[in-house]
Specification:
Strand content: 25-35%
Largest sheet: 10 strands, mixed
CATH superfamily of one domain: P-loop containing nucleotide triphosphate hydrolases
Structural class: alpha/beta
CATH topology of one domain: Rossmann fold
Shape: elongated
Low-confidence stretches: 1-15, 18-25, 322-330, 355-362, 396-408
Distance between the termini: 30 Å
Mean pLDDT: 80
Helix content: 10-25%
CATH class of one domain: Alpha Beta
CATH architecture of one domain: 3-Layer(aba) Sandwich
Radius of gyration: 25 Å
Length: 408
């Protein structure tokens, strides 16, 4: 594994550098990445271990508590750790439910490097691992009056089990009958400002003295449910999405002409002349950016609604003529509760497990394929695949690994 090693601190203290042990009590694993040792575990309350992180710099002999971004894992009874690609640590939580057992601690990914420069401090980022790729969210953008809202409504009405919307965040107070987590995620301004600085939001805006925004976690929850999240956002928001770890398919909707767009805006009769002129100025800027920047995957002209809608459905593989090859997988990786050790070999993580129950001694070997990882912090890391390749006989724990056979 090159420069990376995993140590169980209570067993292998002798291999760690001088100065490490003095502040490492309670930490379960340590992973070496160059001149840094990432100690993961936290204080032990006798039952669970919190998933906290500290970094020991071998060259200075000092500890650093990094800024942690992303959604932090819940405490567990223990974990194993292994370095992948020298930029992230795979964490396998023991005795955790299937939707909470596989995590990644990013230590040197592009997102972490960017955040280190922005925050000017040591940074790590958490990301939950999920089986399969998940349906890509759909970004639909375009100037006011172009008809994107009508297209979105038709998609949702025609395919209600396929599409879903993320719940936005806002700092304003709830109105009558509004419920937190359903209409909006209502939050404090200081919390939302901190989260935007930490890169947790795809896009956000100031509206009438309050903040509104779309968090990456809210979008990922829709994807976790097996639905494609639809994002109706402006060009600036689409640019933020493109710069994030989230993989989307994006559309920019154009009018057949600027004159036609002005005609549609005036026909609505809902704005004053000043508001119409302001929307037209914004529309010119959006049309210029949307058509010339290569920001969007597809540009559709909405001259005739049904024709434009038909093109949208065809690209999304919803008209019956296109096989997208996508089969949604919403199942989570289930790590055996008695996972004992992990080893990384050529984008495959070998997981050795053994029963801890008295009278039920056994040993098994599983493979976690990480060759097709997608996404990452502060969202999900998708593309995991796990399968069993070996099970030792109950009373034979010395069988040669050359006899590994795939379990049917």
């Amino acid at each position: 594994m090159g420069e990376a090693q995993e140590f169980f601190l209570d067993e292998l203290q002798e291999v760690l550098p001088v100065g490490f042990d003095s502040e490492s009590r309670g930490y379960q694993t340590a992973t070496v990445v160059g001149e840094k040792i990432y100690a993961i575990g936290g204080s032990d309350d006798g039952v669970t271990l919190s998933i906290s992180v500290r970094i020991f710099n071998k060259s200075t002999g000092k500890w650093v508590i990094p800024t942690m971004l992303g959604m932090k894992p819940a405490p567990c009874k223990g974990h194993s750790a292994v370095l992948l690609n020298k930029d992230r640590i795979l964490i396998l939580k023991r005795d955790a439910p299937p939707d909470d057992c596989t995590w990644f601690l990013e230590v040197d990914t592009p997102f972490v490097k960017e955040q280190k420069e922005i925050l000017d401090t040591e940074v790590v980022a958490w990301s939950k691992g999920v089986k399969g790729e998940g349906p890509k969210p759909v970004v639909i953008s375009g100037p006011s009056g172009v008809g994107k809202g009508t297209l979105i409504t038709k998609l949702v009405n025609d395919f209600p089990s396929t599409f879903g919307f993320s719940v936005s965040h806002t700092t304003r107070a709830p109105r009558d009958k509004e419920k937190d987590g359903i209409h909006y995620h209502f939050t404090e301004r200081s919390v939302m400002e901190k989260d935007t600085q930490d890169g947790k939001f795809l896009e956000f805006a100031h509206v009438h003295g309050n903040l509104y925004g779309t968090s990456i976690e809210a979008v990922e929850k829709v994807t976790d449910s097996g639905k494609r999240c639809i994002l109706d956002i402006d060009v600036q928001g689409a640019r933020s999405v493109k710069a994030s770890s989230l993989e989307v398919i994006s559309f920019f909707i154009c009018p057949p002409s600027f004159e036609e767009l002005e005609k549609r805006l005036r026909a609505r009769g809902t704005e004053t002349e000043e508001q119409v002129q302001n929307r037209l100025r914004n529309a010119r800027a959006e049309l210029e950016q949307g058509n010339s920047s290569g920001l969007f995957d597809h540009i559709l002209v909405n001259g005739d609604l049904e024709t434009c809608y038909g093109s949208l459905k065809k690209i999304l593989g919803l008209d019956g003529s296109t096989n997208t090859g996508y089969q949604p997988s919403t199942k989570n990786i289930e790590i055996p509760a008695a996972a004992q050790s992990v080893f990384e070999m050529d984008q495959k993580v070998l997981i050795q497990c053994g029963s801890t129950e008295l009278g039920k001694a056994s040993n098994s070997l599983f493979v976690l394929d990480v060759s097709s990882l997608r996404g990452g912090a502060p969202g999900r890391t998708r593309g995991l695949n796990m399968y069993a390749i070996w099970k030792w006989p109950k009373n034979n724990r010395t069988t040669s690994k050359s006899h590994i056979e795939t379990l049917e």
